[in-house]
Amino acid sequence: MKLTKILNRVFLVLAVVAFVSCEDQLTELNVNPNGVDPETVQPNLMLATVISNTATSYCGFDCDVAGVMQYVQKSGWGSGLNKYDWVGERGWGYLYGNLRNDKHLYERSVEEGMEFQQGVAIVLRAFTYGFIADHWGDAPYTAALNGATGEQEDMFPVFDSQETIYRGIIEELKIASSLLSKSASAYIGIDPNADVMYGGDPEMWRKMSNSLRLRYYMRVSTKLPSFAQAGIEEIVSDPGTYPVFTSEEEDATMGYIGSSEADSWPNAIAFDASESNFNRVQLCAGFRDVLVDLNDPRLAVWFNKVRIPIKVSTAYTPEADIVEDGIRYLHPDSMDVKGWVVYNQETWPADIEDGKVLVDTNDYAGMPIASSTGDGSGWNLNPNVIQGGPNVHNSALADMYKEAKGDLLRQRLISYAEVCFIIAEAAQKGWSVGSQQEWYEKGVEASFNTWGTSDDAADYLDGTGVTYDGSLEQIMVQKWIANWTVAHESYCDWRRTGYPALTIGPIATRDAIPLRFMYGNNEKNRNNTNYLDAISNLVETDFTAQDGEDSSWSKFWLLQGTGNPY
User: Fold this and answer.
1) pLDDT tens digits, residue range 86-145?
2) Do 12 and 268 form a contact (C-beta atoms < 8 A)?
3) Which of 312, 308, 297 is nearest to 466 (CA)?
4) What 8-state DSSP symbol labels residue 305?
5) CATH 1.25.40.390 residue ranges in the chain?
6) Where would I find the beta strands (DSSP E) of 352-466?
7) What whole-number distance in Å separates Cα of residue 501 and Cα of residue 498?
8) Distances (CA, A) of 113 to 59, 105, 108
């Protein structure tokens, strides 16, 4: 892929957004002769920007949701991630901004008769609206993005129900699949350099559209079981009409160019002299405990061992606390006097509430969820306490996450592994989609292939806790592990099924994990009537008293009446 050419196209499209036409003489004199007229812009000039903005808006591994799902914790500036402090408003302007660009891409593609670009625009539009519905609930959808017309209902769009949005994007993805059903040579105007995800391959985008349909059918399966069953069975039974991913090589991912901070992996140290972005994202004990219990080799791919392990020993009596040969030794008598106890995954919350100081002696040490404020820099007796700094006694991200780009440094939207686990869950429900065991094992194998541990997959599948047992929990735990760097999807699964079983940390903001984002102030202040209608559809829980209806602990339609996750 010619990355320089892609960058040029991305920068050109910024001019599309920046300029609008006007007939008065003053504006004519101020038109940039090097800009691009939005009314005539070539769709391929917009494609790379819309794809990249869609991908980078998705929640990866260091957003607040990644903390809730117990993948990571932060050593600084992370109260939302460390103890789910989700009591403030969260705007969606960046998402609707990209949807406006997406809409323009689609309209120009229709005008130019470019069906490939139309199909891609629809897939990306559906993906983004799904993300909005997943996080906030009801939202502007059918009446959104029409502000340029100037009508009252367009300036202040109504919020469609969450159900309407999910049904709508499923239908849109059907349309996209049809538009993308031809061979590449049958389309006009495909530029492989403009498609930074699939290089202009319509079959891959078609598979992505149908794989996303599986995701959203499963998303609504508790509320609309017959609808979801019919949709998933239709797709699985007719791969010729509705092809989906068939290998991890087809995953919908976007790599990074690595030439600047804007186009590099978010934690790249080349553009962060302090290395704070890398250092402050550290392993969470909840994720570590499961990976260690299952003897999962992916742990070593994603995280480093602690630089200085801690051991409890009397070997250096009477020394109470000493570092020898790269190991920190603590004397048990001294620990008793100081109230220090070794971390135990069964008792640690009670130990903290009893005033104990936890000491993690694992080679891969992790900070427990909601055991620290947003400044977790002192966790595990860190000898160099710096907010947002490193911790020699806690596992950092693997070194590859320091790099600006790399084969495994990709923004992941949906994967073959996810498709396998969706179908395995459908089989677990008794739907006609094939063997639950086969799809479950395919999902595990796909994840191992993705992360370069394929040689270990067979032994892993024979291991305690992993060998197929037919349970929903087993499917969801493995799907959670496979969705490392795709925290948003794990979060949606946990809300829907209650799996994996997650701990509520002792200093959590509330005694429950949040369920949604609160609406942003722009909606409250500028679209108040429709905002009030939307929050009236939320159902309060035992944890919303401080907030009222628009609370991160309120239930939207998807969770109402399900009993999940609480």
Assistant:
1) 999 999 999 999 999 999 999 999 999 999 999 999 999 999 999 999 999 999 999 999
2) no
3) 297
4) P
5) 3-69+87-260
6) 357-359, 411-414
7) 6
8) 34, 12, 8
How far is it, in rounded angstroms, from Cα 101 to Cα 459? 47
Task: State the pairing for strand pair 357-359/340-342.
Answer: parallel
Identity of the residue numbered 102 = D
Number of H helices, E strands in the chain: 23, 9
3-69+87-260 CATH choice from 3.30.470.20, 1.10.150.120, 1.20.1070.10, 1.25.40.390: 1.25.40.390
Please confirm whether the linkage preceding 318 is cis (ω < 30° from 0). yes
DSSP sequence for 94-157: HHHHHHHHHHHHHHHHHHHT-HHHHHHHHHHHHHHHHHHHHHTSSB--TTTT-GGG--HHHHSP
In contact, 222 and 562? CB cutoff 8 Å: yes
The residue with tokens 């907010």 is 387
CA-to-CA separations, 561 to 247, 496, 558, in angstroms, rounded? 36, 11, 9
Cβ–Cβ < 8 Å for 451, 425: no
- CB under 8 Å, gap of 24 or more: what pairs does 84-87 form? 84/370, 84/508, 84/509, 84/510, 84/513, 84/514, 85/374, 85/509, 86/509, 86/514, 86/517, 86/518, 86/552, 87/509, 87/518, 87/546, 87/547, 87/552
Residue 414, sorted as left (phi over 0), alpha (psi -120 to 50) or beta, turns out to be beta
The whole model's pTM is what?
A: 0.93
Mean pLDDT of 348-369: 97
- What is the percentage of the chain residues whose pLDDT exceeds 90? 90
Are 512 and 81 in contact, with CB atoms under 8 Å apart? no
Cα distance between residue 399 and residue 560, in whole Å: 43
Q: Residue 61 has what pLDDT?
A: 84
Omega within 30 of 0 (cis) for the link into 565: yes
Per-residue pLDDT tens for 394-426?
999 999 999 999 999 999 999 999 999 999 999
Quick one: tokens of 22?
């006007």
The residue behind tokens 């949040």 is 514
Contact 214, 232 (CB under 8 A): yes
> Rounded to the nearest 10 degrees, what angle do helices 115-135 and 43-56 cross at?
20
The phi, psi pair for 100, rounded to 5°, reads: -65, -45
| Contact (Cβ atoms closer than 8 angstroms) between residue 497 and residue 478 | no
- Mutual angle of helices 93-112 and 43-56, in 10-degree steps: 150
Q: What is the mean pLDDT of the chain?
A: 93
Q: Which of 93, 428, 80, 89 is nearest to 229 (CA)?
A: 428
Give kind and range of the element (H or E) at residue 310.
strand 310-312
Could you give the CA distance from residue 324 to residue 339 in angstroms, rounded to a whole number? 23
Residue 340: both structure tokens together: 């220090």
**8 Å CB contact between 190 and 115:** no
380: three-class secondary structure by DSSP = helix
What is the number of other CB atoms lying within 10 angstroms of the CB of residue 4?
Answer: 11
